[in-house]
Amino acid sequence: MSRLSRPLDQLKPAYDAIVVGSGYGGGVAASRLARAGLKVAVLERGREFATGEFPSRFPEMRQEMQVTAARWRTGKATALFDVRVGDDMHVLVGCGLGGGSLVNAAVALRPDARVFADPVWPGQIRQDGLVDEGFRRAEQWLRPARYAKAQEIDKFKALDAASAAVGPRPVTPPVVVSFEETASAGGVAQPACTLCGDCCAGCNVGAKNTVALTYLPDAARNGAEIFTHARVRHLTKESDGRWRVTIERLDGDGKLADVVATAGIVVLAAGTLGSTEVLLRSREKGLSVSDRLGARFSANGDIIAFGYGATTTVNGIGVGHPAKVEGMKVGAAVTGQIDITDADDLSKEIHIQEGALPSAIAPMLPVMFVPNGRLLGALQSLVSGVYKGPFKSLQTFFAVSHDNAGGRLKLDGDRLDLAWPEAKDEPIFARLDATLGKLVAASGGSYVKNPLGAVMGHQPATAHPLGGCGMGEDRMSGVVDHAGRVFDAAGASSNAVHEGLYVMDGAIIPRSLGVNPLLTITALAERAMLHLAAERRLAFDAAPA
Ligand SMILES: Cc1cc2nc3c(=O)[nH]c(=O)nc-3n(C[C@H](O)[C@H](O)[C@H](O)COP(=O)(O)OP(=O)(O)OC[C@H]3O[C@@H](n4cnc5c(N)ncnc54)[C@H](O)[C@@H]3O)c2cc1C
Ligand code: SF4
After folding, report:
1. C-alpha–C-alpha distance, residues 54 and 75, integer Å
2. What's the rounded Cα separation, in Å, for the pair 105 and 281?
3. 423: three-class secondary structure by DSSP
4. Which tens digits make up the pLDDT trace of 107-137?
5. Which of 23, 119, 129, 160 has its CA 20 to 30 A from that of 396?
6. CA nearest to 25, candidates 179, 219, 182, 190
7. pLDDT tens for residues 418-441?
């Protein structure tokens, strides 16, 4: 596939619409606005990765890490993995053309119906029937599928063998992966998944149905101009009502001169952290927004944890592509899932997924586990390689549940900061530890919550940040309305909105979902685009390319 992006020098001074960010929300917005015939620019801070260019060795992986803490920062501003080290919680997000879809585990689930029954959502979400249509479109474009032979995968078998300790047996969750050779909904040829297990470092086969292989090529085919290394700082409203977007041009380590473009429509889709940050900065430049901005941050009750020393074979470390070990079928990053449901109390529901770690971090594993006193096993693996010895039975778990969305994002100088001092005391984390501890014990191993705890601290960490620009009925309860329109805090009525300014990504979700969020983010963006089209008398066909 040829490149989708073009150099920022080619950015024009004016567009009909500018989409900021290129994850699920940005991909949907770019595709639909371009299909409606608008002149669209997509601005993404990260860079474009062609299939085959994702990190497959540790030195490459190290180059793709950017870490920001309160008093220090390391790595390039365009590195693929963006880690925010926080006093109360750490957050991991993707950076690149395609956003989090490039590095996620691809699990695509719909939340329990009780999630949308929560009155925290604006009434229209329950009333207009378009949430279901959004999910239908999201599924048509991302194509969730269950791997038919999951029971043959070792990490699935290990989860199954231990499952009696916590209740239900595992099921195979839908993942947005092509298990057969096909063409994506965006019209890109895709080989079949090789079960290499490297999904969370980027799919070098081209079988993961990322935004870069679906919505973005569709947007480009319909005329959208896509720019990388373009980090939006803030927006201001011009006297004629158009939006002036100030962009930092990122080149490698630093930033070059700012660039400016204007548009009648701006869709912020820079993710929970990015969109909230752009609006916080825009408020400092005079934009009137709800004082709920930054509130209702949720970690989606999400943790990653490990079991070390199990007596069963797990084979949960990716082999990559080309495969580092011939004939080993690790499986997609997630193949099995245990659903602990609770008909009376939604907040107690937990989904536990067995995960595969990407092959590029394999050399780090012995080092990561040494501080936990497992020196002997770690050294054995250093000598024999992680595909033999104790790391053959290393279990990785992704667990998703609910929290109280009690975090708050704010600016600390020029840095986005997350404040959530009570996060570590959220009851869900103790429940998750207890449940995962039982699973690991049933496999004969010991539970390792965070092998990097000595370096990073023992705060919870999430890869599912949500909220910050949460939806509400009006500016007292939310930052955007049900269709992603940004409330104007200085408007005549409490539900007045800024004409032409939208947020469409994980930031608008006002509570935990209890399942991995990609499908809901995509569905809500599809729904918001239906409202945008109706409001502006635009028409677009949503059929796959
Ligand atoms: C390792 C990992 C595993 C995961 N596994 C799953 C899973 O299995 N299932 C699931 O549902 N979810 C998973 N997730 C979460 C999921 O990927 C995210 O929830 C999803 O990508 C969020 O979509 P989004 O559209 O809100 O934003 P993103 O996908 O985060 O996209 C935002 C984009 O905006 C760009 N950006 C940010 N700031 C700016 C700026 N100022 N200017 C220009 N561009 C900007 C970013 O670089 C990024 O490309 C995982 C995440 C990670 C990191
Ligand atoms: S298992 Fe490998 S081939 Fe399959 S989607 Fe994941 S990274 Fe791609």
Report:
1. 17
2. 31
3. helix
4. 999 999 999 999 999 999 999 999 999 999 9
5. 23
6. 219
7. 999 999 888 898 999 999 999 999
